[in-house]
């Protein structure tokens, strides 16, 4: 007796579903990766039939260049050659930290008290191509008179500050170790360390004796400022005797001038003053 038997297509007997694939950016997704995430289940009896899947192939090229969620349309081929389409979720992870372009690690800025202008230090960064994007920038360790302005992306004077404040008496150099941290939307972060050094005016200027020694009469009080070379010293500098020369005897006398800058910092200058003989000044 010749008979005919209908053999069902596997694609008609089984439903296919897929679970999410997770990969890092720019990591290829292979056909084996797709197949590992696809499950076949019988329409009747809910029996697994995953072993009846031969291949799973994407309908178009898969790109993992960009961070985020996407879907892959794939064709499932059963061992009998029949096919079924499936949608496979794909999550592309950004695991690369942003790059801080400026300032560079280890960079230093010297800010001179009173004279120092607004530093306006640019803070620039970018995330990797196709990444999640920069989420936040934080700057810690700044001196009290500075702040990071997110709108302008600069380290600058706080509102109301117009010059670098003076240091406390006896302090000429005050370094501040500053950390800049940039975080992207995937939680990757990078940091760079820079230094902002506040310095007194005495570190910038060098007070020296006037090359032409001051000459005074016997018993006169010499002018402290006259004994100091003021050529390269700033306006607002004051001069006073720390050790006044003895003018009660003629000859070359030693003295010490205290130079005070506008920020209150001080220099001392050893000077010499000539005291005339009375016999040279008067005729009898």
Automatic annotation (TrEMBL):
Residues 12-94, 209-277 form the Rib domain. One of its GO terms (molecular function) is calcium ion binding. Gene3D superfamilies: Immunoglobulins (2.60.40.10). One of its GO terms (cellular component) is membrane. It comes from the Bacteria. Residues 226-254 are annotated as: Disordered. It holds the Pfam family Rib. This is Rib/alpha-like domain-containing protein. It comes from Gemella haemolysans. The lineage of its organism: Bacteria, Bacillati, Bacillota, Bacilli, Bacillales.
């Amino acid at each position: 007796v010749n008979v005919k038997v209908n053999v069902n297509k596997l694609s008609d007997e089984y439903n296919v579903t897929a679970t999410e694939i997770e990969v890092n950016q720019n990591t290829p997704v292979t056909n084996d990766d797709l197949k590992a995430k696809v499950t076949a289940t019988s329409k009747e009896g809910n029996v697994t039939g995953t072993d009846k899947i031969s291949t799973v192939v994407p309908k178009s090229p898969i790109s993992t260049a960009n961070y985020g969620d996407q879907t892959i349309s794939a064709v499932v081929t059963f061992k009998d050659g029949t096919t079924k389409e499936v949608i496979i979720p794909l999550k592309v992870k950004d695991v690369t930290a942003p790059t801080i372009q400026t300032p560079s690690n280890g960079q230093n800025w010297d800010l001179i008290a009173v004279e120092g202008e607004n530093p306006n230090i640019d803070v620039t960064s970018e995330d990797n191509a196709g990444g999640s994007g920069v989420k936040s920038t934080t700057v810690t360790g700044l001196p009290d008179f500075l702040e990071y302005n997110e709108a302008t992306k600069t380290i600058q004077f706080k509102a109301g500050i117009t010059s670098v404040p003076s240091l406390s008496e006896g302090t000429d150099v005050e370094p501040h170790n500053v950390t800049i941290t940039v975080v992207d939307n995937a939680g990757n972060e990078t940091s760079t360390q820079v230094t902002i050094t506040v310095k007194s005016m005495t570190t910038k200027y060098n007070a020296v004796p006037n090359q032409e020694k001051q000459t005074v009469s016997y018993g006169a009080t010499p002018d402290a400022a006259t004994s100091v070379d003021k050529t390269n010293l700033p306006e607002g500098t004051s001069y006073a005797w720390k050790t006044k020369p003895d003018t009660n005897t003629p000859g070359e006398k030693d003295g010490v001038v205290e130079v005070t800058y506008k920020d209150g910092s001080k220099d001392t200058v050893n000077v010499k003053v000539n005291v005339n003989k009375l016999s040279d000044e008067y005729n009898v």
